[in-house]
Every structure is written in structure tokens, then in C-alpha cells.
Specification:
By secondary structure, this protein is an alpha+beta fold. The protein is 30% helix and 28% strand. A hairpin with a 2-residue loop joins strand 7 and strand 8. The longest helix is centred in the first third of the chain and has 15 residues.
């Protein structure tokens, strides 16, 4: 009985923190917006990226950000193309199309926040560098974004 209770608690705690293993791969999450009466709210949805290099997994996360589940909307608009994704050490470098730079300040911040928080769920990544057509687009003129750059509430 004690062993069953411990197993149940372990499963509940693992699910609560969003940590799980499926087919030997870590799950990650993609951040979307839900429109409510009091305004948009962030919501994370988990998924398991396809096996492959870390750069391939990053590309899968970014693609997922542009295809929100029913009832949610993408913070990263489908009009923004991902030109390149490169991983060096613990940094992922993402280069978006010019449509990213053309977004309004709030829209660009929301898109960047969704990308940063979603990408940093992948094991081994600590920083995200965002560019549009090779030009820096990081908020607050920071070279690298971390999970601390944005507060998701």
C-alpha cells in the first residue's frame, strides 16, 4: 500500500511539473494565447518533438507555435517564416523573416516570449537569440533572451 501511494504521488508530481518521458524523449511545451473576458492569457500545451538534432527539435517547436490547438491563438503569427535555426552549445539562434520585425511592439514581444519559453523547455538550452533577416530583434536590446526575460502570467 505504501509503495502504491508513493508511486501515485510520483506520477502526480511528475504530471504537475510538466516532466514526462514518452518513447525515450522528453516532452516540451508550446505557449499560446487564450482570449478571455479580462484579456489574453498564456496557456502552455505539451507535445513531444520528433527525434532528431536539437536544431530539428527547435524547428518543430517553432512550427508548433504557429499551429495553435482549438480555442487558442498563436502568439507567433503564421505570416512569420523561420529562415534558420542553429544551436551552438546552450544557445539557439533563430532567424525570422522580415514579417517578424514588422510586427507591432506588443505582438513582437508576445511572439518572442512564446518562442523563448517554448524553446527553453528543450533539454540543454539556456539562451535564445532572435534575429529577423539577420538583424537583432531581442527585446530590451539584449543579445540573448532567457526565461527570466519574460514573465508569463
Amino acid at each position: 500500500m505504501k509503495r502504491a501511494v508513493c508511486l501515485l504521488l510520483s506520477l502526480l508530481l511528475t504530471g504537475a511539473c510538466g516532466c514526462s518521458r514518452v518513447q525515450g524523449r522528453s516532452s516540451t511545451g508550446a505557449w499560446y494565447l487564450r482570449d478571455t473576458e479580462s484579456g489574453p492569457r498564456w496557456e502552455e500545451r505539451g507535445f513531444v518533438p520528433a527525434a532528431g538534432s536539437l536544431a530539428d527539435q527547435c524547428a518543430a517547436v517553432l512550427a508548433a507555435l504557429q499551429k495553435p490547438p482549438e480555442g487558442l491563438r498563436a502568439a507567433l503569427p503564421a505570416t512569420v517564416r523561420v529562415l534558420s535555426v542553429r544551436v551552438t552549445g546552450n544557445v539557439v539562434y533563430v532567424d525570422f523573416s522580415a514579417e517578424y520585425a514588422a510586427l507591432g511592439t506588443l505582438e513582437r514581444s508576445a511572439a518572442c516570449a512564446a518562442a523563448v519559453h517554448s524553446l527553453l523547455r528543450l533539454k540543454g538550452l539556456l539562451y535564445v537569440s532572435v534575429t529577423a533577416e539577420g538583424m537583432s530583434q531581442s527585446p530590451l536590446y539584449e543579445r540573448y533572451c532567457t526565461a527570466d526575460t519574460f514573465v508569463m502570467s
